[in-house]
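B., you asked whether I could sanity-check this one before it goes into the benchmark set. Here's the sequence:
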Amino acid sequence: MMIRRHARGSIALTATALSAALLLTACGGSSSAKGTDGKLDVVASFYPMEFLAAQIGGEHVKVTDLTAAGVEPHDLELTAKQVGAVQKADAIVYLKGLQPTVDQAVDQSKAKHVVDATAAAPLVDHHLDEDTEEADGHHHEGPAGDPHIWLDPTRYAAVAKSVGAEFAKADPAHAADYQKNTDELVGRLTTLDQEFRDGLKDAKTRTFVTSHAAFGYLAEHYGLTQVAINGVDPESEPTPARLAEVQKAAGENGVTTIFFETLVSPKLAETVAKDLGLKTAVLDPLEGVKDPSKDDYLTVMRQNLANLRAALGTTTG
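And here's what the prediction gave me:
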């Protein structure tokens, strides 16, 4: 989802950057099994992949996140240095189809240990709703399905297991630690999943309205209905017909809140909420974390749960 912007010419990986990266790699000589500090050199494409790599790798890995904290990942343009990092990595963790420049760099790398999240958690198409498959009137290029698999803790756990297995292959000496870390993380994700199940089971309404369609897996997994204002692209403008449909869905389902996200402007959600006399709140798609020193995947997901519970009218403590 949110893929149409990838068609911009400026996003394409330039031949100059690639050539420079290949030159840097060649000048550095042959790469060893690990970095000079003895750690596995891991490149992650964006925050959800970086979180898995860091949690599972622990002290045995050095993780480079290609997408800086607080940066919206879909428009990422790799520098020559970043392409060089991909070329020299011992292991790569990414989500194929989400960031074309990353895909191209990975395809041209010689890394033996690559985890594509979509192999562990295949993508599924999520439409806006049954009647508005393409509400903004455009065809959306990109991966064959919704990429936001990490918003379902069970799908995210499947990717975690793949990361742990690949790290063990790349660094057999620490395979037991990678397995232990993987098991612990999967346990935390299982607990999170149960918290969502318990926290949402008695919601007065099971419909929520969000600024764009990022929460299909979450909605599907917990028996909710996502109504998205502008579909897959958070920067597009919804049509009057779409706004009328959102208003109808909100009225029929007792919706109290319009959700917006943290890495794009809240103006659209605020405008729609004002027009409909509703409140606004954050529902974070977790494509990045603004301040990793304060928050991580688990804390943000629990805040999402709290915000959903408030909006959906749950009664459990």
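One thing to flag: The first strand starts at residue 40 and ends at 44. Otherwise nothing jumped out at me.
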